[in-house]
Amino acid sequence: MQKPLLHQIHPILPVQDVVEALKYYVNKLGFKIAFADDSKKPTYAGIRRDHIEIHLQWHDSKEWELGFNTPMLRIVTQNVESLFNELKDRDVFHKDTKVRDTEWQTREFAFYDLYNNGLTFYQDL
């Protein structure tokens, strides 16, 4: 019997508008659309960049009014400073966002997307 192997994860981020989220991830963060459940008004879609895939799922505005915790993703990245430099002029994150070295031996930067999902891009030192 072969040993099981976990090799990918496709996190699902809640969004209020899948089309707007797709525009943000494609135009601002350099992702490509992998799939969408509808070409005009999708409620579920996937985006890819390099070796990662993230799924975006529509949630009714009533759910947002009630409030719920949005996820925080930590994305392992090669050349994290190059990625930071690529994104810094695209109005993606707060002006005080910086690449920093952490006590847990990573170099990273973090910000929130349109719907308050946290994104941290990091590499080990």
Short characterization:
The protein is an alpha/beta fold and 125 residues long. It has one domain (12-124): 2,3-Dihydroxybiphenyl 1,2-Dioxygenase, domain 1, CATH 3.10.180.10. It has helices at residues 18-28, 61-66, 80-87; strands at residues 12-15, 32-36, 44-49, 52-58, 72-76, 100-101, 106-112, 118-124.
What does this structure look like?
The protein has 125 residues and is of the alpha/beta class. The chain has a single domain, classed as 2,3-Dihydroxybiphenyl 1,2-Dioxygenase, domain 1 (Roll). The protein is 20% helix and 34% strand. It has a 4-stranded mixed sheet, with helices on one face. A 4-stranded mixed sheet has the order 5-8-7-6, covered by helices on one side. A hairpin with a 5-residue loop joins β7 and β8. It is globular and about 40 Å long. The relative contact order is 0.20.
